[in-house]
Specification:
The structure holds 3 protein chains of 3 kinds.
Chain A: H1 22-31, H2 38-55, H3 90-94, E1 100-101, E2 104-107
Antiparallel strand pairs in A: 1-2
Chain B: E1 8-19, H1 58-70, E2 74-75, E3 80-84, E4 94-98, E5 104-110, E6 116-126, E7 130-134, E8 145-149, E9 156-162, H2 169-186, E10 198-208, E11 218-223, H3 226-245, E12 254-258, E13 263-266, E14 279-280, H4 291-299, H5 305-316, H6 324-328, H7 332-340, H8 345-354, H9 365-376, H10 382-395, H11 399-405, H12 413-426, H13 428-436, H14 442-452, H15 459-471
Parallel strand pairs in B: 11-12
Antiparallel strand pairs in B: 1-9, 1-10, 2-5, 3-4, 3-14, 5-6, 6-9, 7-8, 10-11, 12-13
Helix pairs in contact in B: 2-3, 5-7, 7-8, 7-9, 9-10, 12-14, 12-15
Chain C: H1 4-13, H2 18-36, E1 39-42, H3 44-59, E2 71-75, H4 102-109, E3 113-118, H5 152-159, E4 165-170, H6 176-182, E5 185-188, E6 208-213, H7 216-226, E7 256-260, H8 270-285, E8 289-293, H9 301-316, H10 334-345, H11 348-361, H12 367-390, E9 393-397, H13 412-416, H14 423-428, E10 432-439, E11 445-451, H15 457-470
Parallel strand pairs in C: 2-3, 2-4, 7-8, 7-9
Antiparallel strand pairs in C: 1-3, 4-6, 5-6, 5-10, 9-11, 10-11
Helix pairs in contact in C: 2-3, 9-11, 9-12
The chains are: A mainly alpha, B alpha+beta, C alpha/beta.
């Protein structure tokens, strides 16, 4: 698979357990663009362990022949015709932006290019 | 720096992002337009406003399937997936794309030289917005701020992923050129690299010749033309070889092609290794194309370059590689019809390649065939043919009538004989030198005869007569 | 307070002025909402304009619609153009969306008056409305207690008599549970029956918008207005749905109803179970047969939900990054700005669920967590489908207990347990509602849950009407 697909393994590398380590919580927080204090890291780790322990109940089920549920009400081919609809008013939108400049949204510099 | 040192070969895979030529974006009714004022083609959906939802554009889906079939892919039911990562040009901080079940898989592109390159997949995804970096000369590394325009966010893309089956820059360029021709032939995209409606990223690695291993590869981005593609590939492959030869190894990373500097530089740091956490997008039901839909696409597919080359090669009895220029110029139809109307295939091809570089214009196949026949019969000289052809392209008409109007009548050979006699008598020394084999006087006689006939004589026939006379 | 049905009829006939009804509603809110904190923001100008337009329409002989002049409160996770929409989060403080949610357009087209935005657990994550960044809402029956959540503000607004109707959203029970705790009717439609366009997403495959009302007839009236296909929502069901109002009084004679065994035992308070059995008796008295039915997979609902919902939420909430709207805390680069903004802007429960969800989707863990949970979801859905072959409707408690004290449940897991009865229908996608039925030993309201097969809301409302009549009518 091409590199831009990224880390793609939907493999069952780790079986479900109630355990999540402090390091894993820190890693997950950074993936989610959250910064936790040391205390928060401790508290959240404990709390997430408890929730994941409940999740471990699912291990007792035999799910080999079960398909994941795609949609509650199965639909397919929901499409829209290729016709232009008026856009939003730029001023109304930019009025809500934290910082706007030159008709665009202004942010601090991005580090590096997009993936 | 176009050749690798002995014993090394490069392994190239290309990811080409193609903007589809729809009127609106992939998931909303905003205009899909290039060059408009920033943030004037936006709505809750493509801006990713809280509460917004996507609804797929039927034309984008149709174009994606058409492209898939033009690439000889299998078209299957597909699911949209979310690729989760943070970047300011991403309104939702996830991109809606296709992951485990893409629309198109397992196809190939036939190149003009007759070889083919595998296409792993061609999937549908939404484009991102555009960032402009302020300060630092517009380069990202020294920027002081970034400005974001979301006009492009949500524009429909198909990402065509080739198999890593190319082993030199020329093949890579040929693949991209062929892909572009396919896109234009199907009308699915205007495929302009300079405008960004076709973007090429190259995955480059190297290996010892004869091995089938796949070593560490780097993705090279910021390639903006076919020429850059070749330069970037060659540079990067050489960089890899140098590293391996020095006992080192390339790091798996994204590299940025620097056109001015003629080199690649390290791009994003890979520490924050991308875990995209793909999952099926719960807001979008699957796309399930019917057999009837796919059959309809196949039935209405226009003639594609590979098929056109092959048809022309068969009809003209020539190699496929020799048909490339004619097909590129869109002249194969003309040539095929002319051949069917009795024109000599070789002559028709010669004219197509050499004398119709600006296209067919007003020239019809009948006129073309008629002119070629006149040429074959010697009714017009080679120079005259070119002139008549140019007139037919510019204004149409009938070749015989045009030749007549221009005074291009066939010259009676006996007239030329008489003229030649006259010249031999009046310039005996020159004639003697010609008979002895001096090529330089040939022009003298031809020139005199041309002057006497006001250019109507056929130079070939004059030369023929002179030779016969010299031997006789 | 008039019921919505009565009010609409009076306004349509010209007997009642919409503007006057609105003024009364605003007056009652002003009088006591500082104690209850149901509302975050009143949309006074918009409401007054709408009321005026309704009165003028009536005067001109035009019919303003089935909800003419009815004041309605909207949970603050639904977009109202030009009005604050915060999801009770600091990160969206001050944001005014440039568009209306589809349900808002449908309500206003039917003549309803949007009066204000109500409090919720931040981003709809919670069961008590204690997770709001703007203070908790109190239960009108007992101000020291929670109204339930996450739609606590909308439930309280109706229970307090400020408005006859309100909208909430339900992802794991966030309409039904507060309805039960506040003694009002709360309805979760079939997934896809009501458009989600403009509902700020929590868990996309579970979220549905639904009404709160003091009585079943009003709830049916409101449901009929908001339900229906929306081309802007690709998960919206394209089938024309039957009116729930039209058949409301048809009763339950001949229906087969099953009480879900697994939801009537351990973990449920005795008085709640007792009321549920009494509800079963009431249905029997009305001519239905009621038996126990076992749906074993329901016990796995909580575990599956607490993997699926946070996973989808972690993706849905990524967009809150300080770039385009809402609050921003600056940083030296955009990533730092994202981190600072999100860390300051999100409350603990939201952060917890984002991290849980990110983990459940992450490389190496997808199959074990999210993937597995989606399979369990199939299991639950299949078992319900099997049950519905033998039963027209199902019955269970709505909430394991009556309203608890504010601050009583500080442990996240304890709060998650509040949703054990409601979660299965979000996972399976079929409709369910809570209707008040008696009180607990503490005198606080109890609600029983009626569950129906996909798109069978009409039957569900019929049973609710029977139960309401048996319970002594509206409060």
């Amino acid at each position: 698979m091409a590199d831009s697909i990224g880390i793609c393994d939907h493999q069952n590398v780790h079986p479900m357990s109630g355990e999540i380590s402090r390091d894993e919580v820190a890693h997950v927080a950074s993936l989610a663009r959250l910064r936790l204090s040391e205390d928060e890291l401790d508290t959240f780790t404990k709390q997430l362990c408890v929730v994941l322990e409940t999740a471990a109940d699912l291990n007792s089920l035999d799910l080999d022949d079960v398909e994941p549920m795609a949609q509650p009400y199965p639909l397919a081919n929901v499409l829209r015709s290729d016709e232009i609809i008026p856009s939003l008013d730029r001023d109304e939108v930019l009025a809500q932006a934290p910082v706007a400049e030159d008709g665009r949204f202004r942010v601090p510099p991005a580090l590096g290019e997009a993936p | 720096m176009s050749e690798l040192p002995d014993g090394w070969e490069m392994v190239i895979g290309l990811e080409v992002h193609v903007e589809l030529a729809t009127a609106t974006k992939l998931f909303c009714g905003c205009a899909n337009a290039f060059g408009d004022e920033p943030n004037t083609n936006i709505c809750p959906t493509c801006l990713g406003l809280p509460g917004s939802l996507p609804v797929p554009n039927e034309q984008a889906v149709a174009y994606a399937m058409k492209l898939g079939r033009a690439l000889n892919c299998t078209v299957s039911p597909s699911i949209f997936a979310r690729k989760n990562y943070f970047y300011p040009d991403m309104p939702k901080d996830f991109q809606t794309t296709q992951y485990e079940e893409p629309t198109n898989e397992n196809g190939f592109v036939e190149l003009p030289n007759g070889t083919s390159v595998g296409v792993e997949r061609a999937h549908i995804e939404e484009d991102t917005g555009k960032s402009t970096h302020l300060g630092g000369g517009g380069r990202i590394h020294d920027a002081t701020a970034t400005l974001v325009d979301y006009n492009r966010a949500g524009v429909p893309l198909v990402e065509v992923v080739s198999r890593p089956e190319m082993h030199d820059a020329e093949t890579a360029r040929s693949y991209v050129a062929e892909l572009r021709d396919l896109l234009l032939a199907t009308g699915v995209s205007d495929a302009r690299m300079e405008e960004g409606s076709m973007r090429v990223d190259a995955n480059v690695s190297v290996r010892p010749v004869g091995s089938d291993e796949l070593r560490t590869r780097c993705e090279v981005k910021n390639i903006n033309s076919l020429r850059s593609l070749g330069r970037a590939i060659n540079y990067e492959a050489r960089r890899h070889v140098d590293l391996w030869t020095n006992g080192d190894a390339p790091r798996q990373e994204t590299r940025h092609w620097d056109e001015d500097g003629g080199r690649t530089t390290s791009g994003r740091s890979k520490e924050d290794a991308d875990d995209y956490r793909y999952f099926a997008c719960p807001d979008l039901p699957p796309l399930v194309p019917t057999q009837a839909t796919i059959a309809d696409i196949d039935a209405t597919m226009p003639a594609l370059p590979a098929a056109r080359r092959s048809n022309l090669a068969d009809a003209a009895g020539i190699a496929i590689a020799d048909t490339t220029l004619t097909v590129e110029r869109g002249l194969d139809g003309l040539v095929l019809e002319a051949i069917a109307a009795g024109a000599d295939a070789g002559v028709a091809m010669k004219h197509a390649d050499q004398n119709l570089s600006d296209g067919q214009g007003m020239l019809t196949a009948e006129a073309f065939a008629a002119l070629i026949t006149m040429e074959g019969e010697g009714a017009v000289s080679a120079t005259q043919v070119k002139t008549v052809l140019a007139e037919l392209v510019a204004n149409g008409g009938d070749p015989a009538a045009i030749a007549g109007d221009m005074g291009f009548e066939a010259m009676d050979t006996s007239e030329l004989d008489t003229l030649l006699d006259g010249l031999i008598q009046s310039s005996p020394d020159e004639w003697a030198r010609f008979v002895e084999g001096d090529p330089k006087v040939q022009g003298f006689f031809v020139g005199q005869i041309m002057k006497a006939t006001q250019g109507k004589a056929d130079g070939k026939i004059v030369n023929q007569l002179m030779r016969q006379r010299a031997q006789g | 307070m008039n019921t919505a049905t009565e009010l609409a009829a009076h306004v349509r006939s010209g007997d009642q002025s919409a503007s006057v009804a609105l003024a009364e509603a605003l007056g009652s809110i002003a009088d006591s909402d500082h104690d209850i904190n149901a509302f975050l923001h009143l949309t006074r100008d918009r409401a007054e304009q709408q009321a005026l337009a309704i009165d003028q329409a009536v005067a001109a002989g035009t019919d303003p619609g089935p909800l003419a002049g009815v004041p309605i409160a909207i949970k603050d996770n639904m977009c109202t153009r030009g009005e604050p929409t915060t999801c009770s989060s600091k990160i969206l403080e001050g944001w005014r969306p440039p568009y209306d949610a589809t349900v808002i357009s449908r309500l206003e087209a039917a003549g309803a008056i949007i009066v204000g935005k109500t409090n919720l657990d931040e981003f709809a994550m919670g069961s008590s409305t204690e997770n709001s960044a703007f203070g908790a809402t109190r239960n009108p029956h007992d101000l020291s207690r929670v109204p339930g959540g996450s739609s606590g503000g909308s439930a309280a607004a109706v229970a307090a008599g400020y408005v006859p109707l309100s909208l909430g959203s339900d992802t794991g029970g966030s309409i039904r549970q507060p309805a039960a705790l506040c003694g009002v009717v709360g309805v979760k439609p079939t997934y896809g029956a009501v458009s989600r366009y403009g509902l700020i997403a929590f868990a996309s495959s579970l979220d549905q918008i639904g009404p709160f009302a003091t009585n079943v007839t009003d709830a049916a009236l409101c449901y009929d207005v908001i339900a229906g296909h929306d081309p802007l929502d690709a998960t919206s069901i394209p089938i024309e749905q039957a009116s729930t109002l039209a058949t409301l009084g048809d009763g339950v004679a001949g229906m087969r109803i099953g009480i879900i065994d697994e939801l009537c035992g351990e973990g449920i308070d005795a008085d709640v179970i007792a009321r549920t059995h009494e509800a079963a008796d009431a249905l029997r008295a009305a001519g239905a047969t009621v038996e126990t039915v076992s749906i074993p997979a329901t016990i796995y609902g909580l575990a599956a939900y607490y993997l699926i919902a946070p996973a989808e939420a972690s993706s849905n909430l990524a967009r809150f990054d300080g770039v385009r709207y809402g609050q921003r805390v600056d940083g030296v680069n955009v990533a730092a700005m994202n981190v600072a903004t999100r860390s300051a802007g999100f409350g603990d429960e939201v952060k917890r669920r984002i991290m849980l969800g990110t983990y459940a989707l992450s490389s190496g863990y997808y199959d074990a967590y999210y993937g597995k949970a989606q399979k369990v979801r199939s299991l639950i859905s299949d078992e319900f489908a099997t049950a519905y072959k033998s039963f027209d409707l199902l019955l269970s408690p709505t909430s394991p207990s009556t309203a608890f004290k504010i601050g009583a449940k500080s442990d996240p897991m304890a709060l998650y347990m509040c949703d054990v009865c409601t979660i299965p229908s979000n996972l399976a996608g079929h409709p369910a509602l809570s209707v008040p039925f008696g009180a607990g030993d503490d005198g606080l309201p109890i609600g029983v849950q009626v569950l129906a097969p996909m798109l069978d809301e009409a039957k569900m409302f019929r049973a609710a009407k029977v139960l309401e009549d048996a319970a002594g009518g509206q409060s």
